[in-house]
Amino acid sequence: MIRFTVLVVAVLLIAVTALGVFKFGTQPTQPTAGSGIDKLLPNRNNPTLYTYNVLRSFPHDCNAFTEGLVYENGSFYEGTGLTGRSDLRRVDVESGKTLQQHNIDPQYFGEGVVVLNDRIYELTWQSGIAFLYDKKTFKELQEFHYKTEGWGLTTDGKRLIMSDGTQYIYFRDPDTFDELARIEVTDPQGPVVRINELEYIHGWIFANVWQTNNIAIIDPSTGQVVAWLQLTDLLDVKTTCQYADVLNGIAYDPDGDRLFVVGKLWPRLYQIELIPLK
After folding, report:
1. 3-state secondary structure (DSSP) of residue 161
2. Which domains can be identified in the chain, with CATH numbers?
């Protein structure tokens, strides 16, 4: 009798478990943690230090010399560099496959990109030319000219925000590309140079510092670095399919609160969260 009762209970437990799976689905396998940016504690006198935790990684074209990265509506818009190899592409997040591509004239070295409304802007490195494209078709609509080099590009929703490899960040009119204002990026040690790829997130400018594993988090009203994000050892060198270059590429998904980073010629793109250093 005892054996029979145990058997019945076991069968019922299996049935209930199965019912739960079919009715409610399996437990989600995706991480529920966000970027941690909403908990950012900016310190203008002594910048806060952050490290990271990898939440997910995604395939990335290891032939893409990433210069600019933007997330919008389930896709990345990516600008790549190198003379003769530069392009603008729309990329599927999950698979890393290129869905749409526009090759730049081989004479130009592509740089940062940004999406604003129904248009895409793309800088060039030393040619002093920015290209304007239709977001849907990638058709070139216009060219703008500027006197500095072109490195990184983002937007606060009204103005374009541009870096040129120095300690300066420029605010530009999206219709004319005229300079509206500029800030000098500094921390307690002085000017921060080699400001590269940019992303505007929750009122802060996130900026890769070229040839380092650091991202500066900048107050756009003053240019002060209020925090540093250190991304040492992010890339697993065992996964590289060729020589991998420096960290460069920041994108943010505001709806999913997802922060993405990548590097030039990296085979993986990473979703990370900020972790304050003790």
Report:
1. strand
2. 33-276 (2.120.10.30)
First to last CA, the chain: 60
Q: How many angstroms separate the CA atoms of 111 and 267, rounded?
A: 19
> Is residue 110 left, alpha or beta, with left meaning phi > 0 and alpha meaning psi from -120 to 50?
beta
Amino acid (1-letter code) at residue 126: Q
pTM of the model: 0.86
**Average pLDDT over the chain, rounded to an integer:** 87
Distance CA 264, CA 267 (A): 9
* Residue 43 backbone dihedrals phi, psi, to 5 degrees: -130, 105
Determine the longest span between alpha carbons in the chain, in angstroms: 90
Assign 240 a pLDDT band (cuts: 50, 70, 90).
low
| Nearest residue to 88 via CA among 132, 143, 151 | 132
Tokens encoding 135 = 């977001």
CA atoms within 13 A on the CB side of 268: 15
CA gap 9, 264 in Å, rounded: 58
**Is it the case that residue 23 has pLDDT exceeding 50?**
no
Which of 18-27, 81-90, 184-193 has the weakest average pLDDT?
Answer: 18-27
Q: What confidence category does residue 268 fall into, taking pLDDT thresholds of 50, 70 and 90?
A: very high
Q: How big is the CA angle at 230 (ends 224 and 233), to the nearest 5 degrees?
A: 160
φ, ψ of residue 143 to 5 degrees: the values are -120, 145
For 159-171, b where at least 16 C-beta lie within 10 A, e where not — what string? bbbbbbbbbbbbb
pLDDT at 28 over 70: no
Phi and psi at 237, nearest 5°, equal -65, -20
